[in-house]
Amino acid sequence: ATPMSIMTATGRGAQVGVLIKNAEALERFETIDTLIVDKTGTLTEGKPRLVAVTAEPGFEQTELLRLAASLERGSEHPLAEAIVRGAEERGLELASAEDFEAITGKGVIGRVADKSVALGNLALITDMGLDGRSLSEQANVRRDDGETVMFVVVGGQIAGLVAVADPIKESTPDAIRSLHELGLTIIMATGDNERTAQAVAARLGIDEVRAGVLPEDKAKLIRDLQMKGTKVAMAGDGVNDAPALAQADVGIAMGTGADVAIESAGITLVRGNLDGIVRARRLAQVTMRNIR
Ligand code: ADP
Ligand code: MG
């Protein structure tokens, strides 16, 4: 590739908020046939909102939210922010947590006042030897609406659930449509629950869904596809996505996301909208065509 046309392309990209790190990223991007996308913060706003708290018999809704939010103050996860904000908006006085621990892709555990508290997905409570059967119907109704449901455990007992909704970005549906028109296969990979993931994917016409994926498994999913000869781009925003962004033939970070994601990526979408990928793809095609 001649440096001049690459420079023209990267310059044009920059003007529209698509930062291309080097010639290699641009050259490779033209050969991509599959795009893996993270859900939270990539397809969705990544600014989730608390929409429900339900308590099991023997537990009180407000107290449950207070305990959950007190624990989540120690977490930087967008879901945690939603729960803390939700509690603050309801005027709750939060306590400080002790022995706080974040369990990647699963949730958080710790102690608030004298109570052990845990908050997270089914994998987390399964690890604790619990099952969420009494809440599964309620949880599924919410997941079918695309909401993320987290179980709250207090004193070793399932105490209730909190539900959080994260709207799809306004730019996402059109971007997915255009990416399909450009011939890409689109796979969603998310740490979230299967049902929630399927609900979001169905709305967007995404080709394939891998749910309940741990961060290290996102990179493995990409490696497996690459072994079959697939050329893979990965778009993500989180600290969790960094290994996958590095593994992909081209990593695409949301400019609105974590610094480590941006460092791991070959392309950064300044505005954090997927329509930047459509532009990058067209730029790559035009540039490589001109060079040949
Ligand atoms: P994603 O791939 O969608 O960005 P993550 O891998 O970060 O998701 O998280 C996967 C799941 O683990 C979440 O959907 C949630 O159920 C649970 N989880 C992770 N972090 C937290 C937290 N701080 N509080 C509660 N649940 C959490
Ligand atoms: Mg994310």
UniProtKB/TrEMBL annotation:
Parent-protein residues present: 334 to 625 of 682
Family: Belongs to the cation transport ATPase (P-type) (TC 3.A.3) family. Type IB subfamily.
Protein name: ATPase P
Subcellular location: Cell membrane
The organism's place on the tree of life at top rank: Bacteria
